[in-house]
Specification:
The protein is of the alpha/beta class. The protein has a single domain (about 15-485), classed as Glycosidases (TIM Barrel, Alpha-Beta Barrel). Helices cover about 40% and strands about 10% of the residues. It has 17 helices and twelve strands. The chain has helices spanning about 20-25, 50-55, 60-70, 75-80, 85-95, 110, 120-135, 155-160, 165-180, 200-205, 220-245, 265-285, 290-300, 310-315, 365-380, 405-425, 475-485; strands at about 15-20, 100-105, 140-145, 190, 250-255, 255-260, 320-325, 330-335, 385-390, 430-435, 455-460, 470. The strands form three sheets. It has an eight-stranded parallel β-barrel with strand order 1-2-3-4-5-7-9-10, surrounded by four helices. Helix 9 runs parallel beside helix 11 (about 220-245). The relative contact order is 0.14. Bound molecules: 6-O-phosphono-beta-D-glucopyranose.
Length: about 500
């Protein structure tokens, strides 16, 4: 009557790594690529890493300067790690680790340089064709994110980014071009990376420049842009069913697990509300409608979202097949947060958790939280889950022989994978795990190179000096063993 107990990761579990176009590719002005929001991201030398949100903000003046800049000197995301020219060698290293899957994103501006062209740019399409073919030759499945923290600057300057419905139409054209071209080769898709992040950094996620709007309207503008992304995500699901019929398509959420600081009911309620707010983003894409608590929030705040007739049907009819998450940390909240010690670096800031250690960037390390988050997600939605980002940023220093002995990184991954295995044994249907990131890359928030995530070291510093040579860290061999044994030894 009962199924037998689950001992570990299922056969065919998708082990691999995750990267994003704007953090690795470089080649910012090659192959006909247009300027994107990521090309505006200036390296702010004087900011402390823990000033997380300030790293992401942008002013009109900074945009004007960046639009004029003709090199990559102050704009590390323009150079990335030159994956554009090194992808074959990098894929060979991923294959050596035994990867079954690589998560990467497609830069919209390679396919539609300004976003409004009637036809896609063949050279951009060809680049991803070659990349996908190289992966498949190495028995690595592509997991493609349609939108990861970038969009054409033309749409930002002409339309105000995602706040304008016309951007949705342009994105639908991009989605169709990509699905038509790669639909038969790609088995796993994601729509928007961390769709919830538009609330924390509206420019990076939605192409919204805050100072272009009256401060009191900004929140409304952001939720309007988010609505357009929800509809765009549902339309991508719709087109995927036709153009990539053998594939699965998922949504992607920054899982910001929040604990109450105490068992005071007010703290528990507040933490519950934070978690509910975090789930709002996946609720829409999985349940196909806005949850009622958000409608209450909108009405209490006087926010009005313009919708078109048909939007509700689009959302309800085209729901994702699976949910994917990034998980880096947990958070703590309290009604008395003002009087408590804070953790500055955490994505959403928050109260310090005395039971947890932090990374050098002040992100709280909580492996058990991953097990809790996975169980919660699966209980809530009962659809497969994919962990598509998890990892730690650290400064790596080579030893006398030039080797990075990154035991701290191994310890981080080991503890998280052990808890992930427990979640699988708890019954969570887990499709796979892609570490962030298998290779050192440019940090999304701080645009640093020094904040290293990889199993593969890349010789490049914050200023872009270095040979770009790739080398294996100690963790490379450790992860290779994990994959080889399908996590048996964890
Ligand atoms: C996630 C993003 O939020 O966190 C990635 O999807 C990002 O793009 C990762 O790189 C780690 O953040 P950071 O700022 O350390 O690069």
């Amino acid at each position: 009557m009962f199924e037998e107990k689950i001992d570990g990761f299922p056969e065919g579990f998708l082990w691999g790594g995750a990267i994003a176009a704007n953090q690795v590719e470089g080649g910012w002005n090659e192959g006909g690529k247009g300027l994107s929001t990521a090309d505006m991201a200036i390296f702010k030398k004087d900011l402390k890493p823990e000033e997380y949100s300030k790293h992401y903000t942008i002013t009109n003046q900074q945009i004007e300067q960046a639009m004029q800049a003709t090199d990559a000197a102050d704009y590390p995301k323009r150079r990335g790690i030159d994956f554009y020219h090194h992808y074959k060698d990098d894929i060979a290293l991923f294959a050596e680790m035994g990867f079954k899957v690589l998560r990467f994103s497609i830069a919209w501006t390679r396919i539609f340089p300004t976003g409004v062209e009637p036809e896609p740019n063949e050279s951009g399409l060809q680049f991803y064709d070659d990349l996908i073919d190289e992966l498949l030759r190495n028995n690595i499945q592509p997991l493609v994110t349609l939108s990861h923290y970038e969009m054409p600057m033309y749409l930002v300057n002409q339309f105000g980014g995602w706040s304008d419905r016309r951007t949705l139409d342009c994105f639908e054209r991009f989605t169709l071009a990509v699905l038509k071209r790669y639909g038969k080769k790609v088995k796993y898709w994601l729509t928007f990376n961390e769709i919830d992040s538009i609330i924390r950094h509206p420019f990076t996620t939605g192409g919204i420049v805050p100072e272009r709007y009256p401060a009191e309207r900004l929140e409304n503008i952001i939720y309007q842009a988010l609505h357009h992304q929800f509809v765009a995500s549902a339309l991508a699901v719709k087109h995927c069913r036709r153009l990539s019929p053998d594939s699965k398509i998922g949504c992607m959420l920054t899982r910001l697990l929040t604990y109450p600081q105490s068992c005071a009911p007010e703290d528990v309620l507040l933490a519950g509300r934070e978690n509910q707010l975090n789930y709002f983003f996946s609720d829409v894409q999985i349940r196909g409608r806005y949850p009622r608590h958000m409608l209450r929030r909108f009405s209490e705040k006087g926010l009005q979202i313009d919708t078109r007739p048909g939007d509700e049907e689009i959302l309800s009819q085209h729901r994702v097949d699976f949910i994917s998450i990034s998980y880096y940390m947990s958070l703590v909240t309290s009604v008395n947060a003002d009087k408590m010690d804070k953790v500055g670096g955490n994505i959403a800031g928050g109260v310090k958790n005395p039971y947890l250690k932090t990374t050098e960037w002040d992100w709280q390390i909580d492996p058990v939280g991953l097990r809790i988050a996975l169980n919660d997600l699966y209980d809530r939605y009962q659809i497969p889950v994919f962990v598509v980002e998890n990892g730690m940023g650290a400064v790596d220093t080579p030893d006398g022989q030039g080797v990075i002995r990154d035991d701290y990184r191994i310890a981080y991954f080991q503890s998280h994978l052990q808890q992930m295995k427990e979640a699988v044994k708890d019954g969570v249907e887990l499709l796979g795990y892609t570490s962030w990131a298998p290779i050192d890359l440019i940090s999304a928030s701080t645009s640093e190179m020094n904040k290293r995530y990889g199993f593969i070291y890349v010789d490049q510093d914050n200023q872009g000096n270095g040979t770009l040579r790739r080398s294996r860290k100690k963790s490379f061999h450790w992860y290779q063993d994990v994959i080889r044994s399908n996590g048996a030894g964890l």
